[in-house]
Amino acid sequence: MIVEKGGMFMTNSGFNTLKPGNNYSAQELDSFVSTKDVLLLSNNGSQLFTEPDREYKVTQEFEGFFEHSSQDGEKYYREKKAYVVEKA
Question: Do 38 and 64 touch, CB atoms closer than 8 A?
Fold first, then answer.
């Protein structure tokens, strides 16, 4: 069963996605990335998870991204959800 709760789509094992335009606490984001294979990009540097109650707004969502391989010098498209979050 899937239920929407505050912009998060919840299942029995936690939420499956983040919704652009909604705010989430650092603690919620920490839990999300701990259980999902996703990428978070933040304008808060390495301090994203230092204040569990700080709110972040999801501003963009992507289905994947390009990355450069240091091993062979090639660029590869990775089909992996990526979210941009900013301090709210």
Answer: no
CA distance 17 to 36: 9
The closest of 68, 51, 20, 14 to 78, measured between CA atoms, is: 68
pLDDT tens across 30-59, in order?
999 999 999 999 988 889 999 999 999 999
68 strand-pairing partners: 75
Residue in 84, 29, 32, 81 with CA at minimum distance from that of residue 58: 84
Question: DSSP of the chain, one letter per residue?
Answer: --EEETTEEEETTEE----TT-EEEHHHHHHHHHHS--EEEETTGGGTTTSTT-EEEEEEEES-EEEE-TTT--EEEE---EEEEEE-
